[in-house]
Structure formats: C-alpha cells, structure tokens
Design goal:
heterodimer, A: alpha/beta, 7-stranded mixed beta sheet, 12 strands, B: about 300 residues, mainly alpha, 14 helices, globular
C-alpha cells in the first residue's frame, strides 16, 4: 500500500505544487463531460462527447506515463516522510518557494527520501482532522503543533516524547532555543515538540497618527492609565454624532486569543493555575476590573470601536489608518509593511507592575504512530537548525525559536522590542487545557453578550455566567 | 419455486453493489451511532464506558442544546411556509405560456446548481454593511445602509431564512411546475365556462389537485430545514450571541471541538426523532386537511 501511495505521490508531485488547483481543474473537466451526456440528444452528439472523454482519458494517461518516465531517472524513492501543515493550497509566494527549496535540500541530504507536505485547510479544521487521522492510523509523521491547541495532542498520546532523541543526538542542543518557548510542549521530563517559530502579542502603534495628534510614542512599562490617556489623545470624533468615529485610539477585535492578555495585565486570568476551573478567576475581582477596563474602552471612553462599528467598517481599522494602536503578533508586520504604515511596537501596558503578554508558537512534533521516527527527527532538526531558520524567518512571518537565528535580526528596534517581550510571555491556555478552544468560543460569545446588551448585562454578571459554563465544560471527565 | 429461485441469483448480483454500499456507508454508521450514543465516547480516550441514556438526559437539560433546538425550530417555522409559498407562486408564474418563460425557469433554478459554500460567500458579500448589495441599495435609496445583518441578533437568522428561499426555490419550483402541468386543461376550461376567475381557478382547481405535490414539497423542505448547516458554518458560526446555533451545527461542535462523539451521536438521534415526528405530523394533517387530493 505504501508503495502505491509513493507512486501516486510521486506522480502528483511532478505536476508541481500546489497541485490542488490542477486537481480541481481535472475534476471539473471530467464533470463537464459527464454533465453534457444527458443533454446530448442525437447519437452523433453522444458519440462526440464520448470521443472527447476518451481523448481526455488517453491524454491523461500519456501525460502521466511521460511524467512517470522522467521520475525514473532520479534516485528511486524508498521512503515518503509525510509532514502536516495548516493552510490550503498556497499561492506561489517567495515563502512557498523557500519552503520547497528547503524540502529539496533535506531530500538531497537523505537520498531515497521524499518529503510530502499535506496542507490541511479550513479555520478550526486542523486539529480535528489530524486527531481523526490519528484515530484511524493515517496520521502524518511530522506535524506542526500550534501552542493554542497543543494540549489535546499532548494529553492523548498522539505525539512521541522527543527526549530520547534530544539526549541521543550529540549534534542537537536544546539550549539553542528560547527556554520558555521550548517549555510550551514540555510535561515534566517529557518534551513533545521542538519550537520552530513564535510571536509574542505586542502593541503596534502608527507613528504617523501619533505625530499628527502630538502624542508621544508609548514606552515599555507604561500603565493602563497611560494607555487610556494615549488612546484618548488619538481618538478623533466626527462632527456627526450618529456617525462612526473618524479615528479610534485603539482597534478592537473580538477574538479571545487577541484580547486575553488584557486580563493578565490587570492581574486576572481565565482559569485557576491548574487549569481546572474558572470560578474565582474569570469572575474574580482582578479579572472583573480588567474586563471592565477593556469594555469601557468601547462603551464609556469610546476610544475603541464597538463590534457594530468595526463590523460596519468592514476593514481592519488599523491597516486603514483609522485606529492608532492594535494588539497583534509578528505575522501582521508583513501586511503593515506592504501597506506602507510607519509603525512601532511596544509591550502591553500593565496595572500590576509585572509585564506580561501571550506567546503564540509553532513547534514540530513526531506522531506516536509514525513509521519513520528517526527520519522525522532528522527533518525536525534540519528545519529548526540555525541556518534554515535564518532563511525561513527572513519572510517576517514570525520570530525564530532558535536564539542564534533570532539574534541575526538584533539591532532592528522593532525586532528588539519583540525579543524583549519574550521574557514576559506566557504560553496560551490551549497548550495545557484540552478544551480551551471551546472556552475561547465561550469567551467570544461573552464579549458579544456584554457589548450588544448595551449595558443591560453587567460585566461581573457576564463573567460569573461564563465562569459557570466553563466550569461545567471542564468538569466533564 | 426452485426454478424461480435459480433465476433470481442474477438479480441479487445486480442489487449487491448498491446494497453493500448502503449497508456499509449508511446503515452500519446509523446503527453504530446508536451504540455510541449510549456510551461516554471521547474520540481520543481508550475506554468508552456505557452510560445508558445519560447522554440524552444531560442534553435535554443543557441550555445550549435547548437553545439550538429553539433556533432550529424558528428557522423551520419561517423558512418552510415562506419557501413553499414563494416557490408555488413562482411555479404558477412560470407555468404560464409566455415568450421566454424558459429563461425565467432557468434563472430561478440557477442557485440550486451552485455549491452552498459558494452561495454563502456571495451572500456574505450581499449582506455586508455599507458596500454589500442590500446596504448599498438602501443607501442609494436614502437609507443609512449600515446594518450589519450577520452580526446582529435576529437579523442573522432572518438573513439565513431569506437565503434559504433563494437556494431552495429552484428544486421546489420544478416539482410544483410538474404538478401544475399535470392538471388536465379540461378542468380549467370547465371552470372558466362556469365563470371562475383566474384566482378561483387556481384556488379551487390547481391547489387541491396539487395537494400530493405540496405534501411532498413541504416534507422535503422541512427535512432540509432541520438539516441547516453549511450556511451557518460559512456565515455566522452560530453567532451572533448563539442566535443561529442550530442543532446540526451544535452537533458538529460537540464532535469536533469537544470530541465527544458519543454525545454528538445522541444529539443526532434526537434530531432524527424531531424530523421524523414533524414529518409524520405533516403527513397526517395534510392528508386530512387537503382531502381526497392528498389521498390520490
């Protein structure tokens, strides 16, 4: 079966990647043929259509055999290393080209090996699909592990403990990686992923809008009161009170992974330290204060867009230069630069004197059912090595978890500000709590409930209700 | 008998592929889901303890599941009558012998050919504030044009109902059209001679004779409405404020966010029971209400 899969994989790969688009084209062609058949009324027409179908099939066979013939010139592929990644068929970007080159380099180092990337598209589909593949025994050898949904993989024996590989491999040093980033996938002595890249969430600010308003740029260590003053100074009201604001001090998106650090900077949290319950934490006094501060930005101070307003705008207000600040990760830099926004970044303001933010990270893991763990380890080692990392993070997508690779960008004030935040960054709850993606959904709904109730639903009441719901969800065995 | 049986084996060979297919991919999963529904079954956990009807009792006291049932019923109550009436009206219109009526029949059918995902994407655009088709039109007519249909409770469900009218129109219209065209012309001639107006001809000739067709359309539309999923998944994800969290979407979340496939199976059985009961009720009521037409 593997042989057949290999052959098929080879044939498909020769079409060049991404092949998904071509596949659809082929299927469409086939469908067009079959769809026309019932409509054909005269025997002549039927014959013509049939001829076309035959020609199509014959043509494909010829093409396929030619392609197969070409492949025979190369070293015979004996092993296919399957690698899962999120995202659909990709447009041919520089980054996609680089990733392909890196795979080819790895294949050149390991004759007979072919790396087969399996892209899993769809928002929220990645974890379910891989887990289903795990249950049915068809899971790829290497998977990208998203810190936000890592717990469900780690807790259910989907992944292999990498400690034996780390200990055995004299050419690999875990000390090369940021310690708190590497520890995201650690459970005691066991380690389930080698970190690839990551980003702390930081506050981006638009220098042009700050200059125009005459507001000084924010500096690390600022307080929530400083933040509010800054946001007020950057808010521009329009003449028509019914209309949306001309400019907001800060943008707000109701995506819980984006706003959860606000609860932490106020000293609160979603769950208790063990991650087993929300009561007493999500509805605790610190979290309530922090949440009220966040909600007040939209409802009382009106320095951030209400959900209605941002939805009505239909665009990212920060990218549209109608919001002066935005809490986001490193990945947005590519877009902001492309938009020509003159931005700076700074850590989150804090009320507790302790700086904190959330870190979102991708690691590489070997699945427990992989047939080629040793080869998978070589692949992970290759992808996380300094040289590969330096080339990979040049895209601006994220920060390399490899300290040496990340250090290549030292001196750039923006990169330095990101690196500075690493020391204060916490992993997301999803790294340790299996049901956390579900809790994030509850959090989003809670925020909607509060904001759309127009003050009818007090913040503390919403937090109390949601804490109960989370407790119930976590209590199920 | 023996000869008959001897002749029959070829028949079994012919039905075997379809039977096997159905057994493997329809009947077995159904039975197995029933088995799972009686267990506490987490997709990734090794043991699946038997819990009897606990899944069912838990679910019925779960406010979220009840909310999902409520939302589904709201959707069914609005989309089925509106859908049946609009498609009947359109069918009556395109049943006329008019020049170019074929073009209209095609146009009305087109949405049914598209994939629901693609249509949902188009509707997201239609419903956008400011720039969407509806809001831009309202603005052009002097309105505000800022309503964000998919983000406001109430409006989101209304938008899904409106969308269902367009998507389901084609197939329903075709069935009604076939029904209307099978009404013998002589009845209309007789009615016209008796002095019936066009409306009366429709009311007293077409409608009663269409009863079996109507029953079929109502039941299939109801079943389809209970199974609303794609549009919710693509457009609202159950929001805003859970107002479009319908049963099927809720089942999906139970299975693929919480990985509780046992509970999800139990919920599927409840959905199945709901559809069965409603369909049977419709069948009985309409048979009685529409008299001999339905019996035909």
């Amino acid at each position: 079966m593997r042989g057949l899969a290999t052959l098929f994989g080879r044939v498909v790969s020769r079409f060049g990647e991404p092949y998904a688009g071509r596949d659809v084209e082929h299927r469409c062609a086939a469908r067009a043929v079959s769809a026309e058949r019932p409509r054909a009324t005269t025997p002549k027409r039927v014959k013509a259509v049939r001829m076309r179908a035959v020609r199509l099939i014959l043509g494909s066979v010829v093409v396929l055999s030619l392609v197969g013939g070409c492949a025979d010139d190369e070293q015979a592929v004996t092993t296919v290393l399957r690698v899962a990644n999120w995202g659909g068929a990709q447009v041919e970007s520089e980054f996609v080209k680089l990733e392909r080159r890196l795979r080819e380099e790895f294949e050149a180092l390991h004759p007979g090996v072919r790396v087969q990337v399996e892209q899993i598209p769809g928002d929220g589909q990645y974890a379910p699909k891989l887990l289903m593949m795990h249950v049915t025994g068809s899971v790829p050898d290497v998977i990208s592990l998203d810190a936000s949904s890592a717990a469900v993989f780690i807790n259910n024996n989907v992944l292999r403990d990498l400690t034996p590989f780390v200990e055995r491999d004299t050419k690999f040093d875990l000390g090369d990686y940021f310690e708190n980033v590497a520890n995201i996938a650690r459970r005691g002595e066991r380690l389930y992923a080698i970190p690839l890249d990551f980003t702390p969430m930081v506050m981006y600010y638009n220098k042009k809008l700050f200059d125009a308003a005459g507001v000084p740029y924010p500096r690390a260590g600022w307080t929530c009161a400083d933040f509010l003053e800054t946001a007020k100074g950057l808010t521009v009201r329009s003449d028509d009170s019914r209309k949306a604001l001309a400019q907001y001090g800060v943008n707000f998106e109701n995506v819980m992974p984006f706003w959860v650090p606000w609860l932490w900077t106020g000293g609160g949290d979603v769950l208790d330290p063990s991650g087993k319950k929300a009561s007493g934490y999500l509805d605790g006094p610190e979290t309530t204060r922090a949440m009220r501060f966040l909600v007040d930005l939209m409802t009382k101070h009106r320095v951030a867009p209400h959900l209605k307003e941002s939805a009505a705008a239909g665009v990212d207000l920060f990218r549209d230069e109608r919001a002066a600040m935005q809490l986001k990760g490193h990945w947005m830099m590519i877009d902001y630069q492309a938009d020509g926004i003159d931005f700076g970044v700074v850590g989150l303001p804090t009320n507790t004197g302790r700086r904190v933010t959330v870190i979102y990270e991708t690691g590489l893991s070997i699945t427990s059912k992989s047939d080629y763990p040793e080869l998978a380890w070589q692949y992970i080692k290759f992808m996380t090595s300094k040289d590969v990392q330096v080339r990979r993070v040049a895209s601006g997508l994220a920060i390399s978890a490899n300290k040496e690779a990340a250090a290549q960008y030292a001196g750039d004030p923006i990169e330095d500000a990101f690196i500075e935040e690493v020391a204060y960054a916490r992993p997301p709850w999803g790294a340790t709590v299996e049901r956390y993606p579900f809790i994030e959904e509850l959090g989003r709904e809670m925020m909607e409930d509060i904001l759309y109730s127009d003050g009818e639903l007090p913040v503390e009441e919403a937090l109390r209700q949601t804490a109960k719901l989370i407790d119930a969800a976590l209590a199920e065995p | 008998m023996a000869a008959l049986r001897a002749n029959n084996w070829r028949g079994y060979v012919f039905v075997a592929p379809a039977t096997l297919y159905l057994a493997l991919f329809a009947f077995f999963p159904m039975v197995f889901a029933g088995y799972m529904s009686l267990h506490r079954w987490h997709l990734l956990k090794e043991d699946h303890p038997f819990v009897g009807l606990a899944n069912f009792t838990t679910m019925l006291t779960d406010p979220f599941f009840r909310n999902a049932i409520y939302n589904t019923l709201i959707y069914v109550v609005f989309s089925v009558p509106l859908g049946v009436v609009t498609s009947l009206a359109v069918a009556a219109l395109v049943a006329q012998r008019l020049r170019g009526v074929g073009v209209f029949r095609t146009l009305y059918y087109i949405p049914a050919v598209g994939s629901k995902v693609a249509i949902s994407m188009v509707w997201i655009w239609i419903l956008l504030p400011e720039v969407g088709l509806i809001n831009a039109s309202l603005k052009w007519l002097g309105g505000e044009g800022t309503r964000n249909f998919l983000a406001e409770p109430g409006w989101a469900m209304a938008a899904l109902v409106a969308m269902s009218l367009g998507i389901g129109l084609g197939p329903r219209m075709i069935i009604f059209l076939a029904g209307i065209q099978s009404v013998p012309q002589t009845y209309y001639e007789a009615a016209a001679l008796d002095g019936c107006t066009a409306w009366k001809r429709f009311r007293h000739v077409t409608l009663p004779l269409l009863a079996p067709t109507t029953l079929f359309v109502v039941i299939t539309t109801t079943i389809a409405s209970f199974q609303l999923f794609t549009e919710v998944y693509m457009m609202t994800r159950g929001g805003p404020r859970r107002t479009t969290d319908v049963v099927l979407y809720h089942i999906y979340k139970e299975a693929w966010q919480k990985f509780e496939v046992g509970m999800a199976s139990a919920m599927s059985y409840v959905l199945f029971a709901m559809i069965l009961i409603v369909a049977l009720l419709q069948f009985r009521i309409m048979r009685r209400g529409l008299g001999e037409g339905a019996a035909a």
